[in-house]
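Just wondering, can you check both lines?
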Amino acid sequence: MKMTDRAKRFLAGLCAAAACVAGLTAGPPAAVAAGPARTFTIGENDFLLDGKRLQIRCGEIHFARVPREYWQHRLKMLRAMGLNTVCVYLFWNLHEWEEGRYDWTGMADAAEFCRLAQQEGLWVMLRPGPYSCAEWEMGGLPWWLLKNDGLQLRTTDPKYLEPATRYLKEVGRVLAPLQVTRGGPLLMVQVENEYGSFGRDAAYMGALRQALIDGGFEVPLFACNPAGAIRNGYRDDLFQVVNFGPGAAKNAFETLRKFQKTGPLMNGEYYPAWFDQWGGRHRTGDVKRYLGDIEYMMQNNMSFSIYMAHGGTTFGLWSGADRPFRPDTTSYDYDAPVSEAGWVTPKFEASRELFAKHLLPGETIPDAPPPNPVIAIPPFQLTESAAVMANLPTPLKDRSPRSIEFYDHSRGCTVYRTTLPAGPAATLAAKGVHDFGWAFVDGEPVGVMDRRGRRYRIDLPARSAPARLDILIESVGRVNFGREVFDRKGLIAPVQLIANGAAQDLLDWEIFPLPLDEKQRASLSFSAAPPKGAAFWRGGFDLAEVGDTFLDVRGLGKGVLWVNGHNLGRFWNIGPTQTMYCPGPWLRKGRNEVVVLDLLAAERPTLAGLTKPILDELRPELDFARRPRAGGAFAAAPSSAAHTGAFTNEVQWQEARFASPVAGRYVCFEATGAHDDKGLTTVAELDLTDATGAVLVKSDWKIVWVDSEELTAEAGDAQNVLDGQPNSIWHSQYSGTSSPGLPHRIVLDLGASQTVGGIRYLPRSGDAGQPGRVKDYRVYVSDEPFGLKP
């Protein structure tokens, strides 16, 4: 019997209601479209909306980085900028933090954000994942996947693929009704994200494509990649778009056209600037350079998506980390056209002026909405405190310490406790600490462990009697790019006591999970007595009127801050961000409560609300454990090189295999010639491969030495060759009175001896005239650091 549309809707409602009762979903059973059904197709040269040409002028906003109360304001800002489409990421872990329980409510209500976009006259490009990246915790993948030993993320491994495809079908349940074909704003849906920078398995991409189709998506499905990675995992049944930054449009589209012979050309991510990391400069992008490629695309009927049009704020504990490990800041301002607080910027005004010259017939650009009110808050003190060590929960027990995922603990902080035997001065050594660890003997601080420099050893004093050892570990966001996203947190065994040349495993541990959630904060016992060491602080302020403000946290150390129960994110006094954006809707007239976790013992627990943010104030003298680069001089003869070769000037991954694999802990990449012959070296990315050609994981790598890096005129830090980001580069020094010439060398410590069978190199993006692209090079591999002193 044929089922009527009414019966189908009734049955769908019953199924969704049953799922809600079972606790499987939270949110509307299905989104309801707001307009008549329309057609959207990909033609020979154009996108076609109801058969008419549509040039997509898109900008990205992450609704989870914007207070829900401001969603409509930010969407109005995009329309006023001159855009006709908004790009929307979904983060799988936001919607399924607990396995099998989906959440589409509050700041996770993706359907409502899409409906508001449609209300404001914007089309939607949806990017549901399952992997997203976006400087977000684990790239959007849920932490509970890490409880599975041997699981292979972003592959056809059933332990990953089954929950991933189940999630994509849930996305379809919620958002497929909002497709343009059903009267909604969704034009296109992305399959995975930048998979070509990770793997090459077209069957994996096909499995995710099918999951979206099974979830009810019928609009065009697309894949996005940087130009050099399009070939990896390429499928003809996915529309291809290409990602790039300023100066790279012409080359990137030429590369894309080699793979996709017909159809409109589209950019998937165009970068107006870049994101920030703790301890590095705030990154900005030149307005004129940013506009150059936008105008080129507008004039040549190319579509694009500005990443980010509005960056916003990574509230809560959602910020991620670059690989091998460089934690990202809470502010996601991105130097975007719409600022972190939703303000008009010079990039916004320049974009609006340009887009006004290229409108399609019948299009107009509305005025920008008025800015939201901003207030200053006089300085106020946090007067009550609760020491972390005096507010521990009931412990778990384990013979040896394990990562927190095995204790069903997802993030936040963890205290590991055991007993040290009496004995002479010794060294405490752990295999790893993810990510920062403060060690105490009988309550007295003895040192800091720091994942950034793989500092996992601490000198301990002599003990005349057994002593209590506590290690307080802060786990910040998981790595969000590359194979390093398999990023377990906590104390990594073995943990040993080393004395007089003998190593003894420390056993019989107590583990105290501190998730920093509402339940834990409610259990704290505050008092007016000053704390010792890491502590929660509490205080408040009164308001006659509410408005946005920027909390000045320069008097604090490192930790997390809540206002009226809203988690504003992480702070760290090393900068570059020295304020925290506090949205007006999260404040109230009368009394407002602030709670702070400061892991460094607050210098002075005083805050204030400013009317402007501080995004670029570095205080490196406050960085507690960064290891300096190695000393000594590089000493390796060219004849000892494991490999000598030459790269082309093409902007794509280039791979070279050694004549035979070589084992070693230290690797030096030496650039001896450049295509522009100006004595400079630039590198976007370096990978090493094993004897089979598989890319080696970088989680334990660090840079121990580099002969030259540009840190003044631009962020040319050598660390950029390991971060997996094609738009950040190592640039040899060129500012100042002198510029060292070729050769330029960078030395990597792999953490342990590994077999290296080859090298992969990605040049900087842009046209063929970009300076410093490597031509001739050598690679050295050794168990010794080439005469250097790490």
